[in-house]
Amino acid sequence: MFDKKDISIVIADDHPMILKGLHDELKAHNYNVLGQAANGMQALELILTHNPTLALLDIDMPLLTGFEVIKMAKQKKVDTKFIILSFHKENDYLIQAKALQINGYLLKEDSFLEIENCIESVMNGEICFSSSFAASSLATVSEEMKRIKLLTPSEKTILKLVAEQTSSSEIAEKLFISIRTVEKHRSNIIMKLEIENTTSNALTNWAYLHKNLIMEL
């Protein structure tokens, strides 16, 4: 069992009322809140300066998103564990969270009790997702992650270029390969990701929708 006062926390959200409410709840329950930030850059600075036990972050913030903060903080080898607090329920966000190996993902509609339960789970080395997420949704995300891991380094490189709306001819020129080779790679990617529509345009659409995740590969 851990002592709440020993858990240092940084919180970040660009909505003042949400930030204040979260701060007040954490303080009222005896957590050690080291600082609060209204944008991603402030959040990153607080994390790198204080190396808190936990950081509770919104996703959509000015300057840096919550995901960008986590990625940059992890690159600096901080020991901080990360919990996302967001309105976003879409699978794409869950996939990004899993790709970044985030410790927890809660929704802003969740009660403070669920936040406390998540903190306890994370402190015990577990991964915590909001109970509002359907088990089928989490399973779907896990399957997508497995499929993405099947891609070779070359396929990942091409997928990133596709996500940036780069044409096959431009990819071929950039990578010094033939257009035929690019199209073969695209076909293999479609097969591995199990994209239903097998046209090249279908891959472009899929890559555009999953661009944030693809850029983390």
Automatic annotation (TrEMBL):
4-aspartylphosphate modification sites are D58
Q: Which CDD domains match?
A: LuxR_C_like, REC_NarL-like
- InterPro entries given in the database record: CheY-like_superfamily, NreC/VraR/RcsB-like_REC, Sig_transdc_resp-reg_receiver, Tscrpt_reg_LuxR_C, WalR-like
Domain HTH luxR-type, first and last residues per copy:
144-209
Record-linked Pfam families: GerE (PF00196), Response_reg (PF00072)
Question: What keywords are assigned to this protein?
Answer: DNA-binding, Phosphoprotein, Transcription, Transcription regulation
Q: Does the keyword Transcription apply?
A: yes
The highest taxon in the source lineage is Bacteria
Response regulatory domain mapped to chain residues: 8-123
Which SMART domains does this chain map to? HTH_LUXR (SM00421), REC (SM00448)
Task: Output the PANTHER family linked to this UniProt entry.
Answer: NITRATE_NITRITE RESPONSE REGULATOR PROTEIN NARP, TWO-COMPONENT RESPONSE REGULATOR
Q: What is this protein called?
A: Regulator
Q: Which organism is it from?
A: Aequorivita vladivostokensis
